[in-house]
Specification:
With 79 residues, the protein is α+β, with helices and mostly antiparallel strands. Helices cover 30% and strands 29% of the residues. It contains two helices and four strands; from the N terminus they run βαβαββ.
């Protein structure tokens, strides 16, 4: 299976809810439909809330995985 390459990325480690979702949403609004955004998030509320909110906006979560340093890497496909 081919690894999907992100078209852009956001490092939101240390950013609290709901600001991390707001920054993700604003970045997605700048991107073209079908493009991919990689977002780095902290454990806890950020990884619990941001993917759900992104899905509610109609975007597709392609991948979520634990990365080095205890944070998470999420790949979003813009609707």
């Amino acid at each position: 299976m081919t690894e999907i390459k992100a078209d852009d990325s956001l490092d939101l480690r240390g950013v609290l809810c709901p600001i991390n979702f707001v920054k993700t949403k604003l970045k997605l609004e700048e991107m073209d439909a079908g493009s991919h955004l990689e977002v780095l998030l902290d454990d806890g509320d950020p990884i619990a809330n941001v993917p759900q909110s992104v899905k509610e906006e109609g975007h597709q979560i392609m991948k979520v995985g634990k990365a080095d340093g205890g944070h998470y890497r999420m790949l979003i496909k813009k609707a």
